[in-house]
Amino acid sequence: QAQLVESGGGLVQPGGSLTLSCAASGLTLSDYAVMWYRQAPGQERDLVATISRAGNIINYADSVKGRFTTSRDNAKNTVFLQMNSLKPEDTAVYYCHAERPVPGTPTYWGQGTQVTVSS
Fold first, then answer.
1. Structural contact between residues 96 and 79, judged by C-beta atoms closer than 8 angstroms
2. Sequence-distant (≥ 6) Cβ neighbours of residue 10 within 8 angstroms
């Protein structure tokens, strides 16, 4: 069964860093663009970053630009989100999402990982 599993969340002080991982099983992640989303309590799920299948096209939300970096290791079927200079407003559940540019094909969501930025 195809699935995405996130890991790496936790509690960190403001200014700290975390690296999230999104590991795929049962699918070839290099066939998929991957998006990172986050959802704070009572808020909508917001797009944070996008990385193309080859990793050569990357986009970030303005709120994280310059602080977050996404990358991928297709040989390991894994995508990463390096988060630096974390702020309390980055607190949220973070999700990875994989989709192919082919209409009607399945897309996949991870289960989410909690990131809490607090002193």
1. yes
2. 18, 114, 115, 116
Distance CA 94, CA 71 (A): 16
**Residue 45 CB-density burial (10 A; 0-12 exposed, 13-18 middle, 19+ buried):** middle
Residue with tokens 């917001």: 46
pLDDT in tens, the chain (119 residues): 899 999 999 999 999 999 999 999 999 999 999 999 999 999 999 999 999 999 999 999 999 999 999 999 999 999 999 999 999 999 999 999 999 988 888 999 999 999 999 99
Q: What SS3 class is residue 90?
A: helix
| Residues 109, 3: Cα–Cα separation, whole Å | 7
Give strand pairing partners of 95: 37
Which tokens in the block code for residue 101?
């540019």
